[in-house]
Amino acid sequence: MILPKIKILDEKDKTLRKISKEVTFPLTEEDQKIIDDIITYLTMSQIEKYYTKYNLRPGMGLAFIQLGIPKNIFVIVEEVDDEKFENYVIINPKMLSHSEELIYVGEGEGCLSVNREVTGIVPRYARMRISYQDRDGQRQELRVREDLSVAFQHEMDHLNGILFVDKIDAKNPFKDKEKMREI
Ligand code: ZN
Questions:
Q1: Ligand 1 centroid, distance to 148 Cα (angstroms)
Q2: What is the CATH number of domain 14-182?
Q3: What is the reported pLDDT for 139?
Q4: Is the peptide bond before 173 cis (omega within 30 degrees of 0)?
Q5: What is the reported pTM?
């Protein structure tokens, strides 16, 4: 695999605060290429041989706005088995429903735009159902749970200019811990 040349914006960049816009179809060739590049990048970042060689931080999700493009598109590459991956290309997503139950990632969430250690609780729905468009513009529905649900909510926040660090209570980073389940 060849590492795609992509530049991920750092949290200090105000572009990350932009609200991304609805995407129209068909996708441009440029957007198709960026989607493929993101899939390759995220996949390589989770394979030891590559993340060691290229000094990559492992990541499972990336939104277009993190490359400076304010479009409602994000990609998630989930490792489902040892170096076996499932890709999600999500365009114009909408949350249809979510669980009452809240969860948080015990070791803390990570983001390829946040290049520092951040501890604290980011409350997320344990399960949710979304509607989105695929690369062909077809409306699809999807149910996600647990860590995949966290990843989807994290990326959907990016489309609204929100970073996970915004959701941590600065004065009390572990506030309401007992009201949520740690994953
Ligand atoms: Zn992120």
A1: 13
A2: 3.90.45.10
A3: 98
A4: no
A5: 0.96
